[in-house]
Amino acid sequence: MATSTAMHTTTFVSAFITNLRLLNFDLLEDWPEITPGIFAFKTARENQKQRIRCVEWAFYRLFEKWNPKETRNKLQPFFPPYESLRSINLRAALLRCLMDLKKDGVLGKEILIRKTMFDECRGDKFEELLASFSTMVLQKVRRSGRDSDKTVAGRLATGQNTSQKDRRSMVPIAIAHKVSLKALLRRKELLRARYASLGDVLDAKERELLSRVDLLAQADQNWQSDIVPDHTMQALEDRFEDNWQGDAQWVNSILKADRRDATDSLLDTRFTSVWSRTEQGAINTAEMVGEPSMVQDLTNRVRDQQQRLQHWKQVQQDLMDAKPRSPVKLRSPIKAS
């Protein structure tokens, strides 16, 4: 029998605490850390003050959800209970509110409410009261949440007693709702395309960075295999600079391997600016790719010229193949005089 009672007590306390967490009470700043341990039979005497404080807090928050107006009028004057007198008055006010719910038939007949239950705030019947009332509050909150989530069109469409006149008046609403949905879908498609454009830019940047990593790895291997002394490199740079007749920028690009203060148009731009340009549709891969160095630009130009040269060679060959060949005229034999 004792084991059965303990199991029921554990179930009621567990349901009570679970309901409080489902109501997000544990996210409040003044959450008093309500745990099953404060209701344990072995530590009932030691945890009496903490248990009473937690029960007062829980009942007050539950009544806030159940009836905010009545809570302000009857319970708020005694909350929070800074002293023992306020605590006694608060529990007395809670008892009266619960008795009113009992009289109105809100609480079930099997739920017992006695004044002595609030002296130590423990016992099987008291824990059953905690579980029952918290469950009622949770159900009410869930019902009100579902009703508030319904749109006007949803409430009209699912109405039970809708007359023919009301249904005819809903036609313009249905048309307007359809137009609104189409506009929303077009907006979503536009944003999806713009976000996909940003994804292409990020993919291009990722490929560029991977290419840089590979080039650095290759350069590192070459430097480790063939290291030139610093004085030799300095002498070569001085000689090269003294004899160079072109643009001075090329000297730096050739000797320093394009190690200049380059900027990256994407990585150096604030995320808020990139996101704003994305939503405006003003972002593209060409703008976000870093500016090529002088050597890279020269390499690209050479490659383009080679492609053009190959194209014109192919055109020349096609023209030669298409040109008709003139027939060879045979000379007539010379007659002897």
What would you say about this model in short?
With 337 residues, this protein is mainly alpha-helical.
Task: Explain what you see.
The protein has 337 residues and is mainly α. It is 68% helix and 0% strand. It contains 13 helices and no strands. Helix 2 (48-66) crosses helix 3 and helix 2 crosses helix 4. The longest helix is centred in the middle third of the chain and has 62 residues, at 164-225.
Helix/strand order, N-terminal first? HHHHHHHHHHHHH
Helix content: 55-70%
Distance between the termini: 152 Å
In round numbers, the mean pLDDT is 76
Q: How many strands, which pairing sense, and closed or not: the largest β-sheet? A: none
| Mass-distribution shape | elongated
Strand element count:
0
Q: Helical region count? A: 13
Strand content bin? under 5%
Low-confidence stretches: 1-9
Judged by helices, strands and strand pairing, the structural class is: mainly alpha
What value does the Rg take, in angstroms?
42 Å
Key traits:
337 residues; mainly alpha; 13 helices; 0% strand
Produce the secondary structure layout.
Blueprint: H1 2-22, H2 48-66, H3 68-75, H4 84-103, H5 117-120, H6 124-149, H7 152-157, H8 164-225, H9 230-243, H10 248-255, H11 271-279, H12 285-288, H13 294-322
